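Summary of Year 1 activities. Much of the first year was spent building the evaluation harness for sequence design. The harness presents a backbone, in tokenized form, and records the residue chosen at every position. We chose the following record to illustrate the format because it has been used consistently in internal testing since the harness was completed.
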């Protein structure tokens, strides 16, 4: 972890010795050296530059008043508290403390002059302040001439102490400019020193609103620099990985050509473009680090299969890893269906295969007789060895943790790293992609295979469930198939299971003429696989499911998707689920059953999914509704979190940050080092693998 690493560094000048209470409190705030204090910026500001006459203080607003203590006593009713009356020339107010120290009582001795800062309220006895901050003052003592910063802090470290520390850091640390002058001029940004001073000690005439909303030019400067550093560190990580050696896999076009010729369809232009990009990367002797992004149903699997064949053509191994057993098995079937006719063997590895079968498969991979493998994370678990592994494909990459991706990467043959192809069906808006995938090359499948009829989406209140059951009957009697997805019940997996079982029973009873199946997370893997296979083969017409079918499942004959309690699902999930239909030529329908009353966001989400079918647009709306924080699981992806910049409001700074990052990396590596040291210290290790 970065913290311990930093703790081992020699203390910087003027830094409290490690192990002291102060040092550990600072460490809690992730402050480890003077430089960190410079970038520990205020949350907000308080205006102590002015005194408000008590008579004109407005209830509900913070104010600073100054007056003489008329009385101060401990009362016991309604509960023990310290109550003081303070008066100035204009009026009087009551100050109250429910928790107080004897020292506070002394501070408020009758006749003393004090300044109180706090929110004024209209109380029972007239104006009052509860728990105001107090400062004893002399007659006519001067007021501060700048807004008072309020910092994020932690227990045991008061604002005053923190302010002093920051003040000292500002005096000790050289505030060197890290950005080229022409960039500052172009973007109209202030210099670094000017910006941090403006934020820590705002000028008396600074606009408090602009400071608080963080759209003050000083904030813009800091946010720009933060985004720049994010780009720099991601690009550096990219370059570092690129410096490794990988097996160069020439595009021999023997097997790939044969596969293309045998397919019942031609590649879309987007697939062909992605394939060219990947083929070119694979032919290089440094590892590919590419993300293949494409909406649900855009046909990523065939592109991955072609890449795997390029490895096989060269006599090297390739593995495809999927996040669930169902998906892994489906990929296996698809790949085997395409490749067995070409005489290429595909191995299937999952945690649940019987030991004997597993051993046979492992031996064939180990010996290199079998070149291609598909599996779940079982693939990266130890004894699985693919001594000639040259390409790793990771489907639904966001489902895997950093560690799992790392493990796969380290499986390369004799010190060489495998080429990595990540796949994702979670489209994300451009601004987010620029920050989250800045350390990858990206190929986008921006069109769907032809011949798909668009999916119609219906919103139906749960009072009309019977009608929906009728729709299911109709569709299935016409030879189609249907999914019925049960609600997510976050509080309880048991409850979720129960609902699925009940729904299954209801549907069996209501649709005696149809064969209904049930699939959920508690089933054993081979039971799940058998049910999925029966549905894929058309033996089951209706599949009642929990969200286990969310990702990747491909049964083209299914044309009806029913989602219960759709208001409980996230947008990305609804989009994924809806994408399970509309994969064949039949007109498909997605029925979203919702329960009243709808929450504000529930309604907003349903509106978005009703109005949009394009994954990128849905992602954009999603970002708007819930903000980027929880969007792609930033923590899990390992991308350094942004402290100040926000992808929502500062999207326009990202493009220039990226452009400058490229320029600095090319022209001024020393400047890059300085910027990264300033922002990250020794935290670079957080970067994504
Ligand atoms: P996803 O991108 O969601 O993983 P898949 O790879 O599962 O999509 O492909 C969805 C379906 O479209 C599959 O049945 C696949 O065989 C089919 N498909 C892929 N490419 C094409 C194409 N160019 N033309 C027609 N069908 C295609
Ligand atoms: Mg897929």
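For this record, the design step produced the sequence shown next.
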């Amino acid at each position: 972890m970065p913290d311990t690493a930093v703790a081992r560094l020699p203390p910087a000048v003027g830094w409290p010795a490690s192990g002291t209470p102060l040092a550990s409190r600072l460490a809690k705030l992730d402050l480890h050296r003077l430089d960190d204090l410079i970038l520990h910026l205020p949350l907000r500001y308080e205006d102590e530059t002015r005194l408000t006459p008590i008579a004109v203080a407005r209830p509900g607003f913070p104010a600073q008043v100054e007056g003489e203590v008329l009385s101060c006593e401990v009362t016991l009713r309604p509960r023990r508290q310290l109550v003081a009356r303070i008066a100035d020339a204009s009026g009087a107010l009551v100050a109250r403390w429910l928790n107080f120290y004897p020292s506070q009582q002394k501070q408020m001795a009758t006749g003393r002059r004090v300044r109180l800062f706090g929110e004024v309220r209209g109380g029972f006895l007239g104006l009052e302040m509860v728990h105001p901050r107090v400062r004893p003052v002399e007659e006519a003592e001067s007021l501060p001439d700048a807004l008072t910063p309020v910092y994020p802090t932690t227990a045991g470290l008061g604002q005053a102490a923190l302010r002093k520390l920051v003040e000292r850091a500002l005096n000790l640390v050289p505030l060197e400019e890290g950005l080229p002058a022409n960039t500052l001029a172009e973007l109209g940004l202030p210099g670094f020193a000017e910006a941090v001073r403006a934020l820590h000690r705002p000028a008396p005439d600074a606009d408090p609103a602009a400071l608080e909303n963080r759209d003050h030019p000083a904030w813009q400067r800091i946010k720009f620099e933060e985004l720049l550093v994010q780009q720099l560190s991601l690009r550096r990580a990219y370059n570092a990985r690129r410096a490794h050696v990988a097996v160069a896999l020439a595009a021999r076009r023997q097997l790939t050509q044969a596969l293309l010729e045998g397919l019942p369809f031609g590649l879309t232009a987007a697939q062909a473009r992605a394939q060219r990009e990947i083929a070119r990367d694979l032919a290089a002797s440094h590892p590919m680090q590419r993300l293949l992004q494409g909406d649900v149903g855009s046909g990523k699997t065939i592109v991955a299969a072609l890449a795997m064949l390029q490895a096989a053509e060269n006599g090297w191994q390739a593995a495809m890893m999927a996040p669930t057993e169902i998906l892994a098995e489906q990929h296996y079937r698809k790949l085997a269906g395409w490749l067995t006719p070409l005489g290429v063997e595909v191995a299937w590895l999952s945690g649940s295969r019987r030991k004997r079968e597993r051993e046979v498969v492992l031996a064939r991979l180990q010996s290199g007789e079998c070149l291609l493998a598909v599996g779940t994370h079982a693939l990266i678990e130890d004894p699985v060895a693919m001594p000639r592994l040259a390409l790793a494909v990771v489907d639904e990459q966001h489902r895997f943790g950093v560690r799992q991706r790392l493990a796969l990467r380290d499986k390369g043959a004799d010190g060489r790293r495998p080429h990595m192809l990540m796949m994702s069906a979670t489209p994300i808006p451009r601004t987010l992609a620029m920050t989250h995938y800045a350390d990858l090359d990206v190929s986008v499948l921006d069109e769907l295979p032809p011949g798909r009829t668009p999916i119609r989406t219906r919103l139906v209140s749960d009072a009309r469930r019977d009608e929906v059951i009728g729709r299911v009957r109709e569709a299935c009697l016409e030879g189609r198939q249907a999914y019925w997805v049960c609600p997510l019940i976050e509080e309880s997996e048991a409850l979720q299971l129960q609902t699925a079982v009940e729904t299954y029973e209801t549907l069996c009873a209501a649709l005696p003429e149809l064969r209904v199946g049930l699939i959920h997370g508690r089933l054993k893997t081979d039971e799940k696989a058998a049910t999925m296979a029966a549905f894929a083969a058309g033996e089951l017409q209706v599949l009642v499911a929990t969200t286990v079918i969310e990702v990747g499942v491909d049964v083209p004959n299914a044309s009806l998707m029913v989602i219960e309690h759709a208001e409980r699902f996230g947008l990305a999930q609804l989009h994924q689920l809806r994408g399970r239909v509309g994969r064949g030529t039949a007109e498909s329908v997605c029925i979203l059953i919702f329960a009243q009353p709808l929450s504000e966001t529930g309604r907003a989400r349903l509106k978005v999914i009703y109005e949009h079918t394009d994954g990128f647009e849905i992602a954009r709306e999603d970002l708007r509704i819930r903000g980027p924080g929880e969007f792609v699981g930033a923590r899990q992806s390992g991308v350094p979190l942004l402290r100040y910049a926000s992808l929502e409001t500062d999207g326009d700074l990202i493009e220039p940050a990226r452009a400058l990052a490229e320029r600095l990396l090319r022209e001024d590596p020393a400047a890059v080092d300085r910027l990264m040291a300033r922002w990250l210290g020794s935290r670079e290790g957080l970067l994504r693998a």
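The longest helix spans residues 217-242. Quantitative recovery figures across the full test set are reported in Table 2.
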